[in-house]
Amino acid sequence: MLSERRLEVLRAIVQDYVGTEEPVGSKALTERHRLGVSPATVRNDMAVLEDEGYIAQPHTSAGRIPTDKGYRLFVDKLAGVKPLSTPERRAIQNFLDGAVDLDDVVGRTVRLLAQLTRQVAVVQYPSLTRSTVRHVELLSLAPARLMLVLITDTGRVEQRLVDCPSPFGEASLADLRARLNSRVVGRRFTDVPPLVQDLPESFEAEDRGTVSTVLTTLLETLVEEAEERLMIGGTANLTRFGHDFPLTIRPVLEALEEQVVLLKLLGEASESGMAVRIGHENAYEGLNSTSVVSVGYGSGGEAVAKLGVVGPTRMDYPGTMGAVRAVARYVGQILAES
Questions:
Q1: Average pLDDT in the chain
Q2: In the sheet where 157-163 sits, what is the strand order?
Q3: pTM to 2 decimals?
Q4: Which comes out higher in pLDDT, residue 220 or 10?
Q5: 177 close to 214: Cβ distance less than 8 angstroms
Q6: φ, ψ of residue 65 in degrees (nearest 5)
């Protein structure tokens, strides 16, 4: 275990390196921070930190920079989440409040996160499997053709065409719509199948085929994999950090193009807690020079999807964590009110 003084030295090194982009020396640390000890003592502490693998000497310069291990200790023990200022919180609320539908909410969230953190922002669309049914609408397009519209509690709208085995009258359609909504509104998608399985039996024989077809379409919509959608923004921000990537930025850009990789990264965030993956903790090799900060968002305290940012390991962790958490909270409020 490191002593409190050495933890303070590590904290100072991380803060200075993130702020200046320059390797940090003992003389600069004693001048910028009130460590209460001599430069010689700080040099000794830095030697211990280096032996323990928390800092490293990048070149022949006297300065040191944090390693992935050093950043991890900083995030776990030394970094509080930086609260956003009142103007920042107001700006988030004003920007997100203007959204007109779910696509707009996700698009605005990506742009906002990228602007606030100056990193690459990634937002997952709300998962259908964790959603509840707000309303099922059935519209007649032709005597034997219907449109099924499924609206979720997160504002997501799914539309499907249904070709019926026989004509279906307006009265029967209204009856099916009413009975269907009475059973499924407010219920989790995973709870719906057993709630509607006996519905065809309550209709006249000539309508049962159509009712079964409508239910089949509904259940297929509930279990589709279409929820695995992402929106990404702010990729150009990476060009500001060219020197933070040892060889080239290309592996990072290639990784960001792989939706499966990004979904896996976001998936490591717990339901409500924040996940910070630093450098080589990211399983995908192309992202070994980056850190990923992610968190779940949703309404009613339950996460329906994840959002986060990707940037270099030399990251303002307290500020980034604060921004990601604040944006997730506001998006959750919007979904709850939509």
A1: 85
A2: 133-142, 145-152, 157-163
A3: 0.76
A4: 10
A5: no
A6: -130, 155
